[in-house]
UniProtKB/TrEMBL annotation, chains A, B:
Residues 19-153 form the HTH marR-type domain. One of its GO terms (biological process) is response to stress. This is Transcriptional regulator, MarR family. One of its GO terms (molecular function) is DNA-binding transcription factor activity. It comes from the Bacteria. InterPro entries: HTH_MarR-typ (IPR000835), MarR/SlyA-like (IPR039422), WH-like_DNA-bd_sf (IPR036388), WH_DNA-bd_sf (IPR036390).
Length: 171, 171
DNA sequence: TATTGTTATACTCTATAACTATA
DNA sequence: TATAGTTATAGAGTATAACAATA
């Protein structure tokens, strides 16, 4: 991607080239990283990144309702139902009614689910170490943690997307 | 996601909690950011992020071959053909044979394509400013740029993914 | 033979809307 | 009425393999 220098952007305050560079480097590096991670998870565990994230959440909590599970994984409810159904069919989780709230579905990780996490995690850590940690000094990694935690929290505080107007796509 | 404290990972050297935090904050923040960006591009330009990236590349270069266009956008050739066909149908690019190499297809951005970029870019910049730049000091943004540029280059130098063994997914 | 690109095909994933059931 | 979740459905996107044409 090149700079937006040759546009008529009216009064829009353009970002400094350094700002743009930070943005591009950030998104591109993470895209590449995620791609490698996806490959590893698929190869060693037969699961997608989303499924791995769900299993990790359940591995910590033991069991969660669908709504609790949806928090943290930006997702539509139906999308989560779809993934949970896949995980259940694979025997990695079970689904059942909640005693506290009859409306809720409790999703619980199975032994096989924990086994899958245990099988996949070492490779996952290896990939992130090789691609991320090895490229960054301990000091910089610490800075990165602070910066991106702040960014994450900042975005999380954003008003819900429902505020944004929808337009039909042109194709 | 919680920590992997309760696994038998054998001899695997576990990352420090701070390392994990950096990784999680990084991927989560970028996911959230990309989600907002996608919304904006769709709403104001009717295009996806991938299509925006392709248009940005073409907007700088004027025209590129499919192979050149594929560089930088991690993508299968067929996937690029699919996206290029969509962009062509929408009148944002044209495709034609290359005079230099009869095998190559030259993809060129049209006036309408440039107009779309110009229409979408201000909002794109606004979103990134609101979500990213505003959360980070100038100094930290500069650090972020340096760090992530290094990570990106590091990952780019990785051996091709064909080295990774493929396994069938379990479901 | 290697490279460029397209096509056919199959599959994964995601979102929307309508629906059921409980609070 | 509001909330939790599912289902039906439709569409976008992606990858693989087979293919044609040129270098």
């Amino acid at each position: 991607m090149t700079g937006p220098d040759d546009f008529d952007l009216g009064d829009l305050k353009l970002p400094e080239p350094q700002q743009l560079e930070a943005y591009f480097a950030l998104t591109e590096a993470v895209s590449l990283l995620q791609h490698h991670v996806e490959q590893q998870l698929r190869a060693e565990g037969g699961i997608s990144t989303v499924q791995f994230q769900l299993l990790m959440a359940l591995n910590g909590a033991g069991q969660l309702t669908m709504t609790q599970l949806a928090d943290g994984v930006v997702y539509s409810r139906s999308g989560l139902t779809y993934q949970a159904a896949l995980l259940e069919k694979a025997g990695l989780v079970t689904r059942g009614p909640s005693p506290d709230d009859e409306r809720a579905t409790l999703v619980a990780i199975t032994d096989k689910g924990r086994e899958t996490v245990g099988r996949v995690l070492p490779g996952h850590i290896q990939v992130t170490r090789r691609l991320l940690y090895e490229a960054v000094s301990a000091e910089d990694l610490n800075r990165l943690r602070g910066i991106m935690s702040r960014v994450r929290d900042h975005i999380r505080e954003e008003p819900p997307r429902s505020a944004a107007p929808r337009r039909k796509r042109t194709f």
